[in-house]
Design a protein that fits this description.
The chain is α/β, with parallel strands linked by helices. The chain has 13 helices and ten strands. The strands form two sheets. It has an eight-stranded mixed sheet with strand order 2-1-5-4-3-6-7-10, sandwiched between helices. A two-stranded antiparallel sheet has the order 8-9.
Length: 313
């Protein structure tokens, strides 16, 4: 397979260098994604000054040549195995369309709890924001590149390292991270995501169903850091203490809770609980400037300057 890739790469360099997308696709000629994996590809030089390597990395994940791609706050494409090596990892999944105060409050609250874990103390901690391919596709079969770059630029403006993955199932994300670091791994999520995690329909492809998925997810003492959900009408909070699960799964939930697999983020900022990205988008579209109070200053400035998400200024 390596020889075939070499031939494909030489052909692409000579005949497809003017079309980077086609060059990347050509690497699979006479090959399948089961035979080869390409973690990083980067175009450099004057001929490629218009190429955004973040889009090229995204293409690798789209084609199945890589399970994930990573880039830093400066837009530089990173080698995930090098960045993750020997680091404790805390990852938050989201749409970040746009990133709001809630997203950062979730991460900051989780970081405080994560670093207090005796197994993490003294270790270098890497916080990540993760976007999944399913989220980027949003039910379609094509990714809106401008929308993707808008989200990437906004997260970069906040100094975040971003992971793009094709691991919709959390247990697959956990396995990907655990293969690259032996240190502690934590996943940050809101209460709605934890409720969804207990829906058995997502595990029908596994012989062991939900039990197998949780066995894979929670191995190596992985913990979920759970941010509360506030009912907008009653103001009642949904936390790990009162999370609704199906009756037949209550004992499983209780077991995981008792073993410390869930960590309640009770150090949240109550002012942020009513903020949702979808509401921010609606306000941007209607010209309601209240959206600026729902996102960090750097995010609002960039949205206005670059007219992201239909913003008119």
């Amino acid at each position: 397979a390596l020889g075939v890739v070499g031939v494909n790469l030489l052909y692409g360099a000579f005949f497809l260098h003017h079309e980077p997308d086609l060059l990347v696709e050509s690497l699979l000629d006479k090959l399948t994604t089961g035979r080869i994996e390409i973690d990083v590809i980067e175009f450099k030089g004057i001929e490629f000054r218009a190429v955004d390597n973040r889009l090229i990395s995204l293409k690798l994940v789209q084609l199945g040549l890589s399970g994930a791609a990573m880039f830093g706050a400066n837009g530089e494409v990173l080698q995930p195995s090098e960045v993750l090596y020997k680091k404790a990892v805390l990852v938050e999944r989201g749409s970040f369309r746009p990133p709001t105060h809630v997203n950062f409050d979730m991460l900051e609250c989780a970081l405080e709890k994560f670093k207090a874990d005796p197994a993490v103390q003294g270790e270098e901690v890497l916080p990540l924001f993760e976007l999944t391919m399913r989220n980027l596709l949003a039910g379609g079969d094509q990714i809106d590149r401008r929308d993707f770059l808008a989200r990437a630029d906004l997260l970069a403006a906040c100094g975040m390292t971003v992971l793009i993955s094709d691991y919709f199932e959390y247990y697959r994300l956990a396995a990907y991270l655990a293969w690259r670091t032996k240190e502690r791994i934590g996943i940050v999520m809101g209460a709605p995501s934890l409720i969804e995690l207990f829906e058995e329909k997502y595990y029908t492809q596994l012989p062991g169903g939900i039990l197998e998925s949780f066995g894979r997810l929670f191995k190596n003492n992985l913990k979920l850091y759970v941010y509360p959900l506030m009912n907008p009408t009653s103001g009642q909070l949904t936390t790990i203490e009162n999370l609704p699960v199906a009756p037949e799964l209550e004992k499983l939930y209780g077991y995981l809770a008792d073993r410390g697999s869930f960590v309640a983020l009770d150090n949240f900022n109550p002012d942020y609980l009513s903020i949702y990205s979808r509401d921010v988008l609606k306000k941007i579209a209607t010209g309601d400037l209240a959206w600026k109070d729902m996102v960090p200053d750097g995010v609002s400035d960039l949205i206005v300057d670059r007219r992201f998400f239909g913003c008119q200024g």
